[in-house]
Amino acid sequence: MIRMSQITLTLPDKVAAELAEASKQVNCAPGDLAAELVQRGLAVRRFKVAREAVLGSLGQQSTVTDADAFKLLW
């Protein structure tokens, strides 16, 4: 069983309205959609941190493309 924690978010009215509309479009509760979007946002953040670490270890600047980084690694 996955343990869950509850938090309260304070959103600008415009963002809350967009979340409500989006949740209707995908037929889920606003809280469930918000949780999914937070998970995705954190995954993107983890990827960016890992990407910068890899590029830094290769001695490259962040302007290098991901394709260039893969070429350098392999």
Order of helices and strands: HHH
Largest sheet: none
Low-confidence stretches: none
Quaternary state of this entry equals single chain
Mean pLDDT value = 86
User: Would you report the number of β strands?
Assistant: 0
Q: Helical element count?
A: 3
Offer a concise description of the structure:
Helix content is 66%, strand content 0%. It contains three helices and no strands.
Descriptive account of the structure:
By secondary structure, the protein is mainly α. The chain contains 3 helices and no strands. The protein has a domain at 29-73. It has helices at residues 13-25, 30-57, 66-73. The model has no long low-confidence stretch (mean pLDDT 86).
Q: How would the blueprint of this fold be written?
A:
Blueprint: H1 13-25, H2 30-57, H3 66-73
Helix pairs in contact: 1-2
How would you describe this structure in keywords?
74 residues; mainly alpha; elongated; 3 helices; 0% strand
